[in-house]
Design a protein that fits this description.
This protein has helices at 12-24, 36-46, 62-71, 87-95, 107-119, 127-134, 141-147, 150-159, 165-171, 176-190, 198-205, and strands spanning 4-8, 28-33, 50-54, 77-82, 100-103, 124-125. It has 210 residues and is α/β, with parallel strands linked by helices. Strands 2-1-3-4-5-6 form a 6-stranded parallel β-sheet, with helices on both faces. The longest helix has 15 residues, at 176-190. The radius of gyration is 19 Å and the shape is elongated. The termini are far apart.
C-alpha cells in the first residue's frame, strides 16, 4: 500500500509541483491545502501517514499544525519544508516531534529520501542543517577566537554576509584556492558536515560570535 500524504503550501506553484512529482512517484495524495487551518482539517479528516507542510502559511503555520498534531496525539508524521534556517525554528520542530525538515531549494531532490526515512519512523533533516541539529555545539566568542586564526575569522565573517569564495578572495587579496583551503580547515575545526552550505549556514546562525 502506498504512503498516504497531505500537502500544504501557500505558494500554488510549489504546491502543484510537489503534488505532481509525488503522484508521479506513486504516492497517494489525499489532499492539498494553501493554508495551515485547511491542512489541519485535512489531517483530521483523512488521517494520512505523512503531512508535508510549509512552515509559513496563513491561519496556522506548519509548526502550529505540528504542535496540534502532537497535542492531540495524531499518528500523522509531519515533514516541514521551508526557506528558513533560523535556530529557533529547528528547536521548535524538534519540540513538536517533527519527523522531517527540508530546505525548499532541495525539496524535490530530498523529499523521496525524507519520506522513505519518515515511513520507517526515522527522522530526516536536510544535510545543510543536520550538522546543527545533530551536534548542537555552543561556542563562546572567546572560544571561537581561540579555535580559528585571524584569517579564518575574517572568512567566516564574510560568509555570514553570504559572500562567495570569489568575493572573499577579492576582499582578502587572496586566491580562491587559498580561501577553499581555509574553508576546509574551518569545517574540520568546527566539526561540521562537509556539505557545500554547512559552513555558510553555521556562519549565519552564529553571527554574534564574530
Amino acid at each position: 500500500m502506498s504512503t498516504s500524504i497531505v500537502i500544504a503550501d501557500d505558494h500554488p506553484l510549489m504546491l502543484r509541483g510537489l503534488s505532481d512529482f509525488l503522484s508521479s512517484k506513486g504516492y497517494s495524495i489525499l489532499g492539498k491545502a494553501e493554508d495551515g487551518q485547511s491542512a489541519y482539517n485535512l489531517i483530521i479528516k483523512h488521517k494520512p501517514d505523512i503531512a508535508i507542510l510549509d512552515i509559513r502559511m496563513p491561519y496556522l503555520t506548519g509548526l502550529e499544525v505540528a504542535e496540534q498534531c502532537q497535542k492531540h496525539k495524531l499518528d500523522t508524521r509531519v515533514i516541514l519544508i521551508t526557506f528558513d534556517n533560523e535556530e529557533a525554528l529547528f528547536d521548535k520542530a524538534k519540540e513538536f516531534n517533527v519527523y522531517g525538515y527540508i530546505l525548499k531549494e532541495f525539496a524535490i531532490e530530498e523529499i523521496e529520501i525524507c519520506i522513505d526515512h519518515v515511513t520507517k519512523k526515522e527522522k530526516y533533516f536536510s544535510e545543510e542543517i543536520a550538522s546543527y541539529l545533530n551536534s548542537k555545539i555552543k561556542y563562546s566568542n572567546a572560544h571561537i577566537k581561540e579555535l580559528l586564526t585571524k584569517t579564518e575569522l575574517k572568512i567566516v565573517k564574510q560568509l555570514s554576509k553570504n559572500k562567495s569564495n570569489q568575493e572573499i578572495a577579492n576582499t582578502l587579496q587572496s586566491s580562491i584556492r587559498t580561501i577553499e583551503k581555509h574553508r576546509s580547515n574551518i569545517v574540520k575545526k568546527l566539526k561540521l558536515q562537509k556539505s557545500h552550505n554547512a559552513l555558510m549556514l553555521w556562519a549565519n546562525l552564529n553571527k554574534d560570535l564574530f
